[in-house]
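Entry 14. Structure prediction run on the chain below.
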Amino acid sequence: MFFEKSDNFELINRAASKAETIASTVDDKNLEQQLKIIAQILTYIKNNPKEWSLKCEFNIENIGEDLISELSKFCLKGDSIELDDIYWMLYRFLCEYDFLIGSEKQLNSEARSIRKKIEDDIGNLSEKIRSQIIYAAYMMPASITKEIMNDTGIISLRDFKKNSRKRRRA
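Output returned:
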């Protein structure tokens, strides 16, 4: 499990603490909010790494190692590092988690609030972050669904149902 791996888990814990610490010392309100959001999402992951690993397989496969790399740089260099990549990557994980949390569940109000803050602030973000926010909110759910629907197990199930109907008609 990706987030449960001891190195990844420890890195997430360190990065969350560092983001909180730096947020309390910066004068830039936008940077402060970005750091607080990063810390909050990392804390959610840290508090339930198994669940996040299960629900976020798409992004783990596509950007998981990149996130770990960026978090490592952040922990080493701190406030001199560009946070844009960490910010949009964590937003993607949050969106995937929300999308796959289950039909009877939803994000807690604080996590929904974080998502809303990011989406409401889209006009103040760089083009790179804006395009990733739009992708995560609108295109990524379709990509995840497409991947699930084209899984060999799902295809086999559809073929089984189709063949079963044909046999019943015959």
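The helical segments are 6-23, 29-47, 49-55, 57-77, 84-100, 109-120, 127-149, 152-169.
Filed with the rest of this week's runs.
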